[in-house]
Description:
This protein is mainly α. It has one domain (13-114): Multidrug-efflux Transporter Regulator, Chain: A, Domain 2, CATH 1.10.1660.10. Helices cover 67% and strands 6% of the residues. It has helices at residues 15-22, 26-35, 52-67, 72-114, and strands at 13-14, 41-42, 48-50. Helix 3 (52-67) packs across helix 4 (72-114).
Amino acid sequence: MVQHLPKDDEPCYIISVAARMVSLHPQTLRYYERLGLVQPTRSEGNRRLYSPRDIERLRRIARLTDELGVNLAGAEVILNMARKMERMRAEMERMEAEFEREIERLRSRLRQLEG
Protein backbone atom coordinates (compact mmCIF):
# COMPACT_ATOMS: atom_id res chain seq x y z
CA MET A 1 0.00 0.00 0.00
CA VAL A 2 1.33 3.47 -0.92
CA GLN A 3 1.45 5.83 2.03
CA HIS A 4 0.31 9.39 1.34
CA LEU A 5 2.46 12.09 2.94
CA PRO A 6 0.63 15.39 3.34
CA LYS A 7 1.86 18.45 1.49
CA ASP A 8 3.23 21.29 3.64
CA ASP A 9 0.02 23.28 3.41
CA GLU A 10 -2.46 20.39 3.39
CA PRO A 11 -4.83 20.70 6.39
CA CYS A 12 -4.98 17.25 7.91
CA TYR A 13 -4.54 17.18 11.71
CA ILE A 14 -7.36 17.91 14.13
CA ILE A 15 -6.47 19.97 17.19
CA SER A 16 -6.03 17.03 19.57
CA VAL A 17 -3.58 15.34 17.20
CA ALA A 18 -1.75 18.60 16.49
CA ALA A 19 -1.46 19.31 20.22
CA ARG A 20 0.06 15.86 20.84
CA MET A 21 2.47 16.31 17.94
CA VAL A 22 3.87 19.52 19.45
CA SER A 23 3.46 18.53 23.11
CA LEU A 24 1.12 21.42 23.89
CA HIS A 25 -2.39 21.52 25.32
CA PRO A 26 -5.21 22.05 22.78
CA GLN A 27 -6.20 25.17 24.73
CA THR A 28 -2.71 26.57 24.07
CA LEU A 29 -3.24 26.04 20.34
CA ARG A 30 -6.58 27.88 20.57
CA TYR A 31 -4.83 30.71 22.43
CA TYR A 32 -2.11 30.92 19.78
CA GLU A 33 -4.84 31.12 17.15
CA ARG A 34 -6.57 33.97 19.01
CA LEU A 35 -3.23 35.81 19.12
CA GLY A 36 -2.77 35.24 15.37
CA LEU A 37 0.37 33.12 15.78
CA VAL A 38 -1.13 30.28 13.78
CA GLN A 39 -4.17 30.12 11.49
CA PRO A 40 -5.41 26.57 11.02
CA THR A 41 -7.86 25.87 8.23
CA ARG A 42 -11.46 25.19 9.21
CA SER A 43 -13.37 22.17 7.97
CA GLU A 44 -16.96 22.35 6.75
CA GLY A 45 -17.96 21.44 10.29
CA ASN A 46 -15.79 24.33 11.58
CA ARG A 47 -13.15 22.00 13.07
CA ARG A 48 -9.60 23.26 13.17
CA LEU A 49 -7.30 21.42 10.78
CA TYR A 50 -3.56 21.92 11.04
CA SER A 51 -1.14 21.40 8.16
CA PRO A 52 2.43 20.13 8.46
CA ARG A 53 3.49 23.77 7.98
CA ASP A 54 1.28 24.78 10.95
CA ILE A 55 2.82 21.98 13.03
CA GLU A 56 6.33 23.19 12.22
CA ARG A 57 5.36 26.75 13.14
CA LEU A 58 3.95 25.54 16.46
CA ARG A 59 7.17 23.59 17.12
CA ARG A 60 9.21 26.71 16.41
CA ILE A 61 7.03 28.77 18.76
CA ALA A 62 7.44 26.15 21.49
CA ARG A 63 11.20 26.04 20.95
CA LEU A 64 11.49 29.83 21.11
CA THR A 65 9.38 30.13 24.24
CA ASP A 66 10.48 27.03 26.14
CA GLU A 67 14.14 26.67 25.23
CA LEU A 68 15.10 30.28 24.57
CA GLY A 69 12.74 32.07 26.96
CA VAL A 70 11.29 34.33 24.27
CA ASN A 71 7.81 35.69 25.01
CA LEU A 72 5.00 35.17 22.51
CA ALA A 73 5.27 38.68 21.05
CA GLY A 74 8.98 38.11 20.51
CA ALA A 75 8.32 34.71 18.96
CA GLU A 76 5.88 36.31 16.52
CA VAL A 77 8.44 38.95 15.54
CA ILE A 78 11.15 36.30 15.07
CA LEU A 79 8.89 34.08 12.95
CA ASN A 80 7.72 37.01 10.82
CA MET A 81 11.32 38.13 10.26
CA ALA A 82 12.36 34.58 9.36
CA ARG A 83 9.50 34.42 6.82
CA LYS A 84 10.57 37.75 5.31
CA MET A 85 14.18 36.59 5.14
CA GLU A 86 13.09 33.41 3.35
CA ARG A 87 11.14 35.45 0.80
CA MET A 88 14.16 37.70 0.29
CA ARG A 89 16.42 34.67 -0.16
CA ALA A 90 14.07 33.24 -2.78
CA GLU A 91 13.95 36.60 -4.57
CA MET A 92 17.75 36.83 -4.52
CA GLU A 93 18.01 33.33 -6.01
CA ARG A 94 15.52 34.28 -8.72
CA MET A 95 17.50 37.44 -9.51
CA GLU A 96 20.79 35.53 -9.54
CA ALA A 97 19.40 33.04 -12.04
CA GLU A 98 18.10 35.92 -14.16
CA PHE A 99 21.52 37.61 -14.09
CA GLU A 100 23.25 34.34 -15.03
CA ARG A 101 20.92 33.94 -18.02
CA GLU A 102 21.62 37.51 -19.10
CA ILE A 103 25.39 37.04 -18.73
CA GLU A 104 25.22 33.89 -20.85
CA ARG A 105 23.12 35.71 -23.45
CA LEU A 106 25.68 38.53 -23.62
CA ARG A 107 28.61 36.08 -23.84
CA SER A 108 26.86 34.27 -26.66
CA ARG A 109 26.26 37.56 -28.47
CA LEU A 110 29.94 38.53 -27.96
CA ARG A 111 31.07 35.19 -29.44
CA GLN A 112 28.84 35.83 -32.46
CA LEU A 113 30.35 39.26 -32.98
CA GLU A 114 33.91 37.97 -32.57
CA GLY A 115 33.45 34.97 -34.81
